[in-house]
């Protein structure tokens, strides 16, 4: 990325950046100009000529800045604080109750962020906050228009409310999209990737050339409501029957486990049982992986990505990843899977906050696309 390349000394001129990052001179010029205008970089005078006009030397500049990422899950929220170069300065988790009114949830999240014991002064350095939510986000209005798991949030002005309570820009995005963005920016050599978040619910994000693909109505990647022939007649929160979420999500797995006589109350407990070798837990999770893999056959065959990353709580189990991989190899055309990377998400639980950092930094600096 441009900022990291300049900060590390790997590149000191626009020409260096173009060569190092394999970007056109015009693309580098536009992005460097945005960073100059935001006082992230500065020109430090003319460098040595290589046969033409002496180039301007670039260096990092200005007051240190920090960015905060808040990633909401089904029952927890994860926080991250980053510097401009993308270094994670601090991260922590707190419990979350999405059934509470949005004002209460957001107030609690902001209190946790501003009240954290950090080595940096957020009051002086914070430039922006991203918020990941487990629901589709209206990109224009930065709110949730339909959310079965966040029904009380429908049409609530999330960005406006947060910006009125903390005087920095706020960007709101779907949690799976942020996980996908975090993974994609961590692997800049991969042009097209799909990242699946398999936790309490199931979602996925699509990233092409470093940018989230939202689709016409912001629903791109919403595989949780794709119908599966493995499903039962259990109704889904969306109102349909047969959705993948009703058989392969963490919530569904816990319900099935309890119906089978297992004394568990949460997905982490079920995953822990599987890690310990419990056969009943392992069977449930293997079946969920097969159901997800079957649906992903169509998705991967249609999109033909370079990589498929699997994140979320269930991805910590190799049997889950192996079941998905087996379905894909058996159900896709060989040309689709020949060079396809199928892997656990590299950034693990932090993928969402890394993606949140990338989103809010791009937003604050008005960067037109990937800064790399």
Q: What oligomerization state is this entry in?
A: single chain
Estimated share of beta-strand residues: 15-25%
Which class do the helix and strand fractions yield? alpha/beta
Low-confidence stretches: none
- Overall average pLDDT: 89
Overall, the morphology is globular
Order of helices and strands: HHHEEEEEHHEHEHEEEHHHHEHHEH
User: How many angstroms separate the termini?
Assistant: 3 Å
Summary tags:
372 residues; alpha/beta; five-stranded mixed beta sheet; globular; ROK
Question: What do these coordinates show?
Answer:
The chain is built from 14 helices and twelve strands. The longest helix has 25 residues. With 372 residues, the protein is an alpha/beta fold. The strands form three sheets. The protein has a five-stranded mixed β-sheet with strand order 5-4-3-6-7, with helices on both faces. A five-stranded mixed β-sheet has the order 10-9-8-11-12, with helices on one face. It is globular and about 75 Å long. α2 crosses α3 and α10 packs across α11.
